[in-house]
Amino acid sequence: DQQVKQNSPSLSVQEGRISILNCDYTNSMFDYFLWYKKYPAEGPTFLISISSIKDKNEDGRFTVFLNKSAKHLSLHIVPSQPGDSAVYFCAASARFNSGGSNYKLTFGKGTLLTVNP
Amino acid sequence: DSGVTQTPKHLITATGQRVTLRCSPRSGDLSVYWYQQSLDQGLQFLIQYYNGEERAKGNILERFSAQQFPDLHSELNLSSLELGDSALYFCASSVAPNRGATDTQYFGPGTRLTVL
């Protein structure tokens, strides 16, 4: 049962244009969402996050939008640069056990973004 | 460079064997997490340790075990290896025990395990 889904395995965008990466989730207990970026031969790197009480968070060229009613979030990169080419993972956080104090990250399968010069 | 180190980078072994993967967290981080990324899969949470104690268990097989030592480095032991255990194994660390959802995890470069 995949609770976090990234339905597009890959996305190709021209340099300077907007990249939009999408993520859907099914677990309504998720209360925090994160995007990680991963280059080949490296581990994932935290990029940006958003709390479930917000609908938008912006950090430079990166903006994450959250639509709780649709259980959907998206990452916008504007303008896209060739150095943004990487695999982007969507992740969601929820309490590991009901009433517990520990949180667990659930990751999607990732979307390979290619930004063409 | 995240500050998290993992050794070895690559490991090739045979079915039925046992291997140990090692992780050193960022300086000051007390929590260590282990993840498995199989082909075409997202990162699957395996287990978490905080300051030497097991904190949370995810989809970790009984053939797998882990521990965190007093110097806070961690080892993931995989035994009776099967072909399906071939994957990338990532270690991550964070400062706190992940009580807050905002506790950022920093990932190491991973160990690629190939079981032949």
Fold and architecture overview:
The complex is a heterodimer of chains A (117) and B (116). In chain A, 0% of the residues lie in helices and 56% in strands. In chain A, the strands form 2 sheets. In chain A, strands 2, 4, 5, 9, 10 and 11 form a 6-stranded mixed beta sheet that branches. Chain A has a 5-stranded antiparallel beta sheet with strand order 1-3-8-7-6, with no helix packed on it. Chain A starts with a strand and ends with a strand. The model of chain A has no long low-confidence stretch (mean pLDDT 92). Chain B is globular, with a radius of gyration of 13 Å. With 116 residues, chain B is an all-beta fold. Chains A and B meet through strand 5, strand 9 and strand 10 of A and strand 5 and strand 10 of B.
Beta-strand percent range of chain A? over 45%
**Shape assignment of chain A:** globular
Radius of gyration of chain B: 13 Å
Class by SSE composition of chain B: mainly beta
What's the total count of β strands of chain B? Answer: 11
The count of helical stretches of chain B stands at 0
Briefly note the structural class of the backbone of chain A. Answer: mainly beta
Largest interface: A-B, 28 and 29 residues
Distance between the termini of chain B: 31 Å
Low-confidence stretches of chain A: none
Secondary-structure element sequence of chain A? EEEEEEEEEEE
Helix content of chain B: under 10%
Helical run tally of chain A: 0
* Cα end-to-end separation of chain A: 38 Å
Structure at a glance:
The complex is a heterodimer of chains A (117) and B (116). With 117 residues, chain A is mainly beta.
Task: Please give a handful of descriptors for the protein shown.
heterodimer; A: 117 residues; mainly beta; six-stranded mixed sheet; five-stranded antiparallel sheet; 0% helix; globular; B: 116 residues; seven-stranded mixed sheet; four-stranded antiparallel sheet; 49% strand
